[in-house]
Amino acid sequence: MEISGDLLIGKHTVRGTNGSIKGIDAATGEALAPAFGGATLEQLEQACALAWQASDIYRELPLETRAKFLETIAQNILDIGDVLIERCVTESGLPRGRIEGERGRTVGQLRMFAAVVREGDFLGVRIDPAQPQRQPLPRVDLRLRYVPLGPVAVFGASNFPLAFSVAGGDTASALAAGCPVIAKAHSAHPGTSALVGRAVQKAVADCGLPEGTFSLLFDSGRDIGQGLVSDRRIKAVGFTGSRGGGTALMKLAAARREPIPVYAEMSSINPVLLFPHALKNRGAAIGKAFAGSLALGAGQFCTNPGLVLAIDGPELDTFIEATAAALSETPAATMLTPGIHKAYESAVNKTAEHGEVKTLARGCAAKGATQGQAALFSTTAEAFRANPELHEEIFGAASLIVRCPDLATVLDLVEQLEGQLTAALHIDEADYADARRFLPALERRTGRILVNGFGTGVEVGHAMVHGGPFPSTADGRSTSVGSLAIDRFLRPVSYQDMPEGLLPDALKTANPLGLNRRLDGKLQLSK
Amino acid sequence: MEISGDLLIGKHTVRGTNGSIKGIDAATGEALAPAFGGATLEQLEQACALAWQASDIYRELPLETRAKFLETIAQNILDIGDVLIERCVTESGLPRGRIEGERGRTVGQLRMFAAVVREGDFLGVRIDPAQPQRQPLPRVDLRLRYVPLGPVAVFGASNFPLAFSVAGGDTASALAAGCPVIAKAHSAHPGTSALVGRAVQKAVADCGLPEGTFSLLFDSGRDIGQGLVSDRRIKAVGFTGSRGGGTALMKLAAARREPIPVYAEMSSINPVLLFPHALKNRGAAIGKAFAGSLALGAGQFCTNPGLVLAIDGPELDTFIEATAAALSETPAATMLTPGIHKAYESAVNKTAEHGEVKTLARGCAAKGATQGQAALFSTTAEAFRANPELHEEIFGAASLIVRCPDLATVLDLVEQLEGQLTAALHIDEADYADARRFLPALERRTGRILVNGFGTGVEVGHAMVHGGPFPSTADGRSTSVGSLAIDRFLRPVSYQDMPEGLLPDALKTANPLGLNRRLDGKLQLSK
Asked: What region holds the Aldehyde dehydrogenase domain (chains A, B) (predicted)?
């Protein structure tokens, strides 16, 4: 498959005429061919109009059609073959194995949502049958199902060029919910976006869906992204990126005539809490594993462990020594873009020069212009409490260890933290009683609490929450990974006294779709 | 039970010292004793501090304790006896039968949520067991439950002084979810609020709950309401009221350091669509029923039918004649407050004087200073399309009939409407094919679609949606009536590889709470 540099507007490939962008070889900084034409506002309008036209049709197609569509996207992505892997490796600077794994994850995610669509539990069917004899007033017949919100704008993430980009988790869950998608390609991987976009576009055609079910736009500035979020036909936004970018979209969405939900996954430092017995018994081993999690993918994960809270003392020193030893052998790694590398260097230097911070270790020196060198810092509890800038995410392989006098201080610092995607507890059985006292504080401010592990490696399953209170996400009531992500793009509608002939199939008394339903409040399985 | 005029801050009754408000006899406009002291910012701070202290404790109490608490509130409200009914009738101007019915609804709602809490489906338990042998990587153990958001601010509605006020649907669903509540009393019924507040406060004590589980504040201005929404310890807002009030709270909540969800139920004109065969066969009967719905409770319902769309002609005239005849015999009714009456009169006069509007009928003349006189208007499709001010809600018994040339125009006008709580279709079997074409447009912009009925009379059940896209509510993904309302105050948290001893009971493998659970994505009933 060739990369044309065109926009995908419904079934058409159209040259964008509003400036252009080029992919960059992450390792060398060289521009890659071809140039991608940025969309004009007229082209944005066309995409929105097509999405709107498609919306009412797409959402009422049989669930089987929708499921097959998701599976077809998955197969079409696989069918691109090595061209996709190579382009993605070049644009992202990520290792081939990682990108192959991410393709598997992307395809698996689409197939999982196909299964979710077939099963139909997301329709949330509830039926309260009429009670004509009820006194003092008869009870009406009420039936509820969830319907899709309408067209969704998806902003791809730089750090997951496949799994959280054009056909990633946001797109998969929105399409599964029955929402057309307009994807705004991330400028860090336009070629990857173009290839995947073509795979989705082809799946739309393969499955005979309305063309507006999917469009892909390139944006040479910010007008198209902003215009998308502000367009009256867009009913929700999926975004993964920086806090600045996400909060800007939140403001735009809130200022609309009709405000819409924004699901922005933004900023998290993912505290790691080392409890005394675990630290004493396994400090070196935890340190080694920590260094691995910290440096994975050049630290460019939303769930990267950017903060360690532990009681100061020789046990913590053992942990630090093991971490430092592992980091000192950790090669510098090419970062996703020159801009991300520059921001990382700047934040690391600023932290290193902070009067209250000590540099404990660095990874191997960079061998390329855009390679990030891991960094480990420490500070005191008082300094951490007094300097909110030390709570900010550094996107990359940098982490800050806070030396605390006791567990009460650790808990107190946890209570100072903003919302987080994850928190990790390292505990042995003798630590359980202490750990239990931390759970309320962690539940209040994180989406996922993990034990004796690290937040990197986000399982795509049914019980995953990749979300959390602001600012880790824009809407802490949701997850952007796992099957529950479909709920973000749905809302309930109730039908009162509607004749069988007009009811959607999901709500018909005979249950032709074989759905699990809640009858008079009681959950009933179809089989 | 005596009405003291004090704030309820946790277990204390405290005199508010920030100005005062008095209840008003809705029928006479006379001020009622006693005066209610407005809360100071210090008193607000105390209530928030207590709510925060209570939050972690209250949310982890056994479900049975929480259910009993809700039932105790219900019983305590009944135990107030006639004093409550009388005060509520006086303050609201609503008939005794209505208020008795509303008390029944309030009590029933609390008991329904008690049953929902006992059943535990709202915990949304999902378990993906570990797969240590999985290749290429072992799968971790993931378990998900929903946790309460934290303390909730509830703003009572003027038009449901019991069912949507201090212990109404927002409070009941928030408490059911595990969230402490700080209620801001509506100044239209401070005495009713005080009596019900005492019943809740007593239930907190009866059940041995932390005192901060509930507080009740009076506000002599707007500082306390605004301060509540802005307080860092408040994690969600429930509101029923005007569009202006609701959008102001939305802005405050969005501007916080940590933005929080606002569930504001605001503004809806609830279109009624009359289809040709129904109109021809039953026009007069529909008209009579319509007049009844329009004038019910002086038209002071969120679901009041403020707009009728139908094809012009003799059949529509028959409907109008029947409506006009019924309205002309409809007594004027005391409105909730002098302010609401004044706003109603002003909006009705403005509409009557509109160059494109004809007045078709009025109800009986007012016999009291604050009585609202029903009003029926008509206009043309072109005028309705061209004059957005005709789309605005008039809170009270006023409705606008739009004479359309054909059904295509009716559908086109539906597409011009903002988000609505309800839409009503009046159809006979011969209309079904036409009606089907309207469903997508209605599903996109309403929370409830009803057939051959009117939106007034909102059943408190499991399949009810009392919600809808903006501006009918602030968040179209939710309902404020029915058991699904509990979902508004919850968010998911995932636990990874957590030892059994630390897992909350809801997630323990042995399922000690007997919950329905989703295992590896498959729903499994506990019994």
From this structure: 19-468
| C-alpha closest to that of A481 among A77, A32, A170 | A170
Could you tell me which residues come within 8 angstroms of residue B112 by beta carbon, excluding any fewer than 6 positions away? Answer: B460, B483
B358 within 8 A of B323, measured Cβ to Cβ: no
| Among the four given CATH numbers 3.90.1150.10, 3.90.1520.10, 3.90.1570.10, 3.40.605.10, the one describing domain B12-223+478-488 | 3.40.605.10
Q: Give the three-state DSSP class for A336.
A: coil
ipTM of predicted assembly, 2 dp: 0.97
| Locus of tokens 């709500």 | A507
Which of B144, B476, B495 minimises the CB distance to A491? B476
CATH number of B271-451: 3.40.309.10
Distance, in Å, from the CA atom of B235 to the CA atom of A419, rounded to the nearest integer, reads: 12
Q: Which amino acid is at A308?
A: V
pLDDT at residue B527 in the model: 77
Task: Report pLDDT digits (tens) over A90-142.
Answer: 999 999 999 999 999 999 999 999 999 999 999 999 999 999 999 988 999 99
* Closest-CA residue of chain B to A497: B451
DSSP state of B313: S
Environment class of B509 (CB within 10 Å of its CB; exposed 0-12, middle 13-18, buried 19+)? exposed
Q: Are A259 and B469 in contact (CB under 8 A)?
A: no
- Helical packing angle, B223-230 and B243-255, nearest 10°: 40
pLDDT at A262 over 90: yes
Tally of CB atoms within 10 A around A45: 15
Q: Does A61 touch chain B (CB under 8 A)?
A: no
Question: Which one of B477, B478, B525, B527 makes the best mutation probe of the A interface by having the most chain A beta carbons within 10 Å?
Answer: B477
Mean pLDDT score, B71-78: 98
What type of residue sits at position A441?
Answer: A
A15 near B CB under 8 A? no
User: Cα angle vertex B496, ends A429, A284, to 5°?
Assistant: 55
- Residues B360-380 as b/e (b if ≥16 CB within 10 A, e otherwise) read bbbbeebebebbbbbbbbbbb
Q: How far apart are CA B333 and CA B374, in angstroms?
A: 9
The tens digit of pLDDT for each residue in B466-525 reads 999 999 999 999 999 999 999 999 999 999 999 999 999 999 999 999 999 999 999 999
- Shortest Cα distance from A398 to chain B (angstroms)? 24
> Which two structure tokens, joined as six digits, stand for A225?
């992204």
Q: H/E/C letters for each residue in B38-79?
A: CCCHHHHHHHHHHHHHHHHHHHCCCHHHHHHHHHHHHHHHHH
Cis peptide before B129 (omega within 30 of 0): no
Q: Which residues contact A81 (CB under 8 A, 6 or more apart)?
A: none
Can you state the angle between helices A63-80 and A96-119, rounded to 10 degrees? 170
Where do the structural domains in chain B lie, given as residue ranges?
12-223+478-488, 271-451
What distances in angstroms separate CA A291 from CA A9, A316, A391, B58, one per listed residue? 44, 14, 20, 39
A181-184 and A152-155: which strand pairing? parallel
Best to test chain B binding among A139, A496, A522, A526 (most B CBs inside 10 Å) = A496
Q: In angstroms, rounded to a whole number, what is the distance separating the alpha carbons of residues A72 and A53?
A: 22
d(C-alpha A280, C-alpha A302), whole Å = 29
User: How far is A163 from A161, CA to CA, in rounded Å?
Assistant: 6
Number of alpha helices (DSSP H) and beta strands (DSSP E) in chain A: 14, 23
How far apart (Å, rounded) are the C-alpha atoms in residues B115 and B95?
30
- Peptide bond before residue A504 is cis, with ω within 30 degrees of 0: no
CA distance between the termini of chain A: 44
Q: Tokens 């944006």 map to which residue?
A: A219
Contacts of A358 (CB under 8 A, 6+ apart): A377, A378, A379
Q: Which CATH architecture has domain A8-266+478-488?
A: 3-Layer(aba) Sandwich (3.40)
Give the C-alpha separation, B183 to B315, whole Å: 49
